[in-house]
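Standup notes, structure subgroup. Blocker cleared on the calcium ion input:
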Amino acid sequence: MTSEQKPIELPDTPADQLPDEILAKEFQAAMDEHQLSLYYQPIVHLKSGLVAGFETLMRWNHPNRGFISPAVFIPMAERTGLIVEASRWALKEAIRALKRLESHVGHNEHIYMSVNFSPNDLADESFLDEMYNVISASDVRPTQVQLEITGDLLRGQRENSKTILGICQKTGLKIAIDDYGLGDPNVFFKYMDDFPISAVKIDHLVTCDMLKIPEAKELIMAIISEAKKRDITIIAEGVEQKEEALLLRELGCKYGQGYYFTKPLPERELTTLLLQISAFNEHLK
Ligand code: C2E
Ligand code: CA
Ligand code: CA
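Run returned:
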C-alpha cells in the first residue's frame, strides 16, 4: 500500500475538526457497534410537578475519542444522510425504553417519548411507513410519541413537511416545533397556523433571558397567548432556576424542561430518580 492509499484515521484530531468523510465512517461503525445511546430529560407539568414525558437526546461514546457532542455529530449525520438510520434507531430505542420504564415505575398511557427528527428524516420516502411499522409493532399508543422538528426544517420543505406532519397528526402522534421563539416573529408565529402542531418548545436562549430582559418575557407572554388561542401546548426548555419555573407557571406556560429539574440522564439513572421521586413538586413550592 502506498502512503496515498493508507486509510486516514486522525485519532488525535478533535471530532469537530474531522472531515465529514472520516467522522461519517466512524459514526456508521458506532451505529453497527452499539456506541450510541439515548439520554432522557423529563418534561415537567409546572402545576403538579408530574412528569408528562421525556425528550430523548442521542449520545455517542466513542471508544477512543470519548463522548462526542450531538452539536458535532448530528449536523454531520444530516449532511451525510446517516441521520435517517440514526433516527430510526432512536425511535425504536425510545419506545423500548418507555416500556422498560413503565415496568419499573408503573404504566401510564399519557406519558410520552419526544424524539428529535431532522430535515432528511421527513424527506425520506420511507419515513411514514417506518413510523407506522415501529409504532404498530410496539404496544405504545401513537399519542405516546412526540416528534420534535425545528422550525428551520419546516421553512425549508414547506409543502412536503405539511403533508407528512398532517398524516402523522391524523394517526395521533404529537408534533412539537423545537427551538421556538428564535429569529423573526413574523415567521415563527405563522408556524402555528401553517403546520399541524400540538406543541411549541420555547428555546432555552429565550427562557434564560426571561428574568433579565423585558422583551424576552414579553415574547414568552405573546407565544403563550397565541398558542392558547389555538389549543397548542407550550413547553419551555432550558429552565435552570426556580424563579424561571415559577414565573413560567404564573404566565400560563404548562410544561418546563431543564437543568433545574434534572439534566438529561441515562435510562438507569432516570429509573432510579423516578423511583425516588414520583414528581418534581418540591421544586415548584
Ligand atoms: P435540542 O433538541 O434543542 O435539545 C435540547 C438541548 O438542551 C440538549 O442538548 C440538552 O442537553 C440541553 N439542555 C437541557 N436542559 C438544559 C438547560 O437547562 N439549559 C441549557 N442551556 N441546555 C439544556 P444536547 O443533548 O447537547 O443536544 C443538542 C442538540 O442536538 C439538540 O438540541 C438536537 O438539536 C440535537 N440532537 C440531540 N439528540 C438528537 C437526536 O436523537 N436526533 C436529532 N435529529 N437531533 C438530536
Ligand atoms: Ca429537541
Ligand atoms: Ca430545543
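Discussed briefly. Residues 55, 116, 148, 178 surround calcium ion (ligand 2) (CB under 6 Å).
Next: hand off to the docking folks.
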